[in-house]
Each structure stands twice: as structure tokens, then as C-alpha cells.
């Protein structure tokens, strides 16, 4: 498979998973958490699929396209290790959907970060919330979901909070 094909396949999988999850939580109350705003591409997709829903976006820096980021206090800048516990303390476990898109090119750093993010995620989402992650998470309150759409192995990890 060419690198172009592989790239297209990766992004198609991401879109399929986001489309499925936004449909699945349509009647579940609570905000969406976009953990890893980056350029704002997936934020923009979530916003399009869930009009009117509060979407909090977290990142250490604002590198998003000016039209692909939330306004006001829905944009939360700073290190996840600080901003996510602060969000949980302020709002409680309220999210209906959590999208963790946090990876960089450093697999070892990704795994280290995923280990502590795993502990934070259940403090952010309500029971029954859907969690989508580009990194494998592990926590007793995260139940693995089988992807309902065809995605390349290890591309996305799906969980529900119970
Ligand atoms: C893969 S990018 C996100 C891509 C984005 N979802 C998009 O569609 O454009 C990952 C983002 O996570 C952020 N990030 C990674 N680790 C972080 C941390 N510990 N605290 C805050 N931001 C972090 C990076 O700054 C980067 O913008």
C-alpha cells in the first residue's frame, strides 16, 4: 500500500469512528471533550456532526485554524495533566463523548502519556460515555468496545465508561 493510500485509510477510519460515535451519543446529555485540538480538524468535524453541543477542546497551545476552535472558556489551554483534573474538579464526570487525539511520532512518549491519561478519562465522562482514543488506554472503568465500523487494527481504540 502506498503511503498516500495508508494516509487516506487512516483518516477515513478516524472519520468513520467519529461519525459513528456522534450518532451514538445524539441523545446522551453532556459536553464533548476534544483532548488534543491540534489543527482543529477533528474538532471541526465533531462540531459539524453535533450542532449546538458544547465541545471543550484541550491543548497545550493554540495552533488551530482560526475557524476550527471553540470560543471562550470552551478552549482550554495548558498541559493535560493540569487542565483535565481542573475540568473534572469544576464540572464533574459529565462528558458524553471523549475524543483523545494526543499522539506524536514518539511511541514511547505516547505510551507513557496514555498510562496517566487512562486514569483521568473516567473522571471526565458519565457512565455510558463513549471514549475514542488514538492510543490504547487501560483502566478498570473503561470497557473495550468493538469498532462498529471497519478500521485498520490499532488505529483507534474504543471504550465505554461504566
Ligand atoms: C495529533 S495532535 C491533535 C490533532 C487534532 N485532533 C486535529 O484533528 O487537528 C495532538 C495534540 O495534542 C497536544 N498534546 C499532546 N500532549 C499534550 C499534553 N500533555 N498537554 C497538552 N497538549 C498536549 C499537542 O500539542 C497536539 O496539538
How does the major sheet shape up? 7 strands, mixed
Instruction: Tell me the name of the CATH class.
Output: Alpha Beta
User: What's the shape?
Assistant: globular
- The number of helical segments is 4
Q: Could you say how many structural domains there are in total?
A: 1
Task: Give an overview of the whole structure.
- With 162 residues, the protein is an alpha/beta fold.
- It has four helices and seven strands, in the order αβαββαβαβββ.
- A seven-stranded mixed β-sheet has the order 3-2-1-4-5-7-6, with helices on both faces.
- Strand 4, helix 4 (107-120) and strand 5 form a beta-alpha-beta unit.
- Helix 1 (3-24) runs parallel beside helix 2.
- 34% of the residues are buried.
Short description:
This protein is 35% helix and 22% strand.
Structural topology:
Layout (H helix, E strand, L loop, with lengths): L2 H22 L7 E4 L5 H9 L5 E5 L15 E3 L2 H12 L3 E6 L6 H14 L4 E9 L8 E4 L11 E5 L1
The structure holds S-adenosylmethionine.
Note the main attributes of this structure.
binds S-adenosylmethionine; seven-stranded mixed sheet; 162 residues; Rossmann fold; alpha/beta; 4 helices; 7 strands
Amino acid at each position: 500500500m502506498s503511503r498516500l493510500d495508508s494516509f487516506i485509510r487512516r483518516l477515513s477510519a478516524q472519520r468513520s469512528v467519529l461519525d459513528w460515535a456522534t450518532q451514538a451519543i445524539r441523545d446522551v446529555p453532556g459536553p464533548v471533550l476534544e483532548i488534543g485540538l491540534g489543527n482543529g480538524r477533528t474538532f471541526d468535524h465533531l462540531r459539524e456532526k453535533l450542532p449546538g453541543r458544547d465541545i471543550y477542546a484541550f491543548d497545550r497551545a493554540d495552533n488551530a485554524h482560526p475557524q476550527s476552535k471553540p470560543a471562550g472558556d470552551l478552549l482550554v489551554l495548558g498541559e493535560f495533566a493540569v487542565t483535565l483534573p481542573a475540568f473534572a474538579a469544576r464540572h464533574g464526570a459529565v462528558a458524553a463523548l471523549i475524543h483523545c487525539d494526543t499522539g506524536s511520532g514518539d511511541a514511547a512518549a505516547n505510551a507513557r502519556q496514555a498510562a496517566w491519561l487512562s486514569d483521568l478519562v473516567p473522571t471526565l465522562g458519565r457512565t455510558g460515555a463513549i471514549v475514542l482514543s488514538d492510543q490504547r488506554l487501560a483502566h478498570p472503568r473503561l470497557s473495550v468496545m468493538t469498532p462498529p465500523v471497519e478500521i485498520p487494527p490499532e488505529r483507534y481504540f474504543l471504550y465505554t465508561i461504566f
